[in-house]
Amino acid sequence: MINAALYSSASDDWATPQSLFDQLSAEFGGFLLDVCATKINAKCEHYFTRDIDGLSRPWAKRNWMNPPYGRTISGWIQKADAEARQGNLTVALLPARTDTRWFQDYIYRYYEARFLRGRLKFNGSDMPAPFPSVIVVFSPVPSFRFHQ
Q1: 36: closest CA among 91, 81, 82?
Q2: CA–CA separation, 78 vs 87, rounded Å?
Q3: Close Cβ partners of 68 (under 8 Å, ≥ 6 residues apart)
Q4: What's the CA gap between 121 and 142, in Å, rounded?
Q5: What is the mean pLDDT of residues 66-89?
Q6: Segment 7-28, tens digit of pLDDT
Q7: Which of 45, 136, 145, 147 could make a disulfide contact with 112, Cβ separation 3.0–4.6 Å?
Q8: For residue range 97-125, what is the model confidence (pLDDT) as tens digits?
Q9: d(Cα 66, Cα 49) in Å, to the nearest integer?
């Protein structure tokens, strides 16, 4: 069965594949806060939802971020950058939209970007995403590296 929301703008929420989250959580010493979640898809014990606005609250020392992929994504990118400048680490799963202003202004030349091979199959979907994905490490010590 095809999830029509994958191929439309009907949804901007894409639930993180558990195995990818587990791998990154182990690598970075465990995330303390999921900054963009719902009760159903939260990856950490502590999380922010649409009702508990993560853009207006301070984040933890080690954060997981899989933001809505719609028009609000640039606000989340800016917040992750600001949090990194305050000493907090955020690892983000993002669409690999290298032509966007948010990618050019906040990621390119500043943070580590790991481009994922192939297309992710997000939780709750029968089909892979119609776009490539990237893991961005918003580190307190910015480093410009691209990985495949």
Answers
A1: 91
A2: 15
A3: 12, 13, 36, 76
A4: 29
A5: 96
A6: 334 445 668 999 999 999 999 9
A7: 145
A8: 999 999 999 999 899 999 999 888 877 67
A9: 12
Question: Do residues 16 and 66 lie in contact, with contact meaning Cβ atoms separated by under 8 Å?
Answer: yes
In angstroms, the Cα distances linking 143 to 63, 66, 102 are 18, 20, 17
Assigned token pair, 25: 């959580």
**Considering the chain, what is the average pLDDT of its residues?**
88
**Rounded to whole angstroms, how far apart are CA atoms 128 and 147?**
21
Angle at 56 between CA 53 and CA 89, to 5 degrees: 95
Note the residue count of the chain.
148
Residue 144 burial by Cβ neighbours in a 10 Å radius (0-12, 13-18, 19+): exposed
Percent of the chain with pLDDT over 70: 84
- Looking at residue 147, its pLDDT comes to 55
CA gap 113, 102 in Å, rounded: 13
- The DSSP symbol for 129 reads -
Cα dihedral sign, 115-87-90-9: negative
Place of tokens 């020392």: 61
Residues linked to residue 62 through DSSP beta bridges, in sequence order: 89
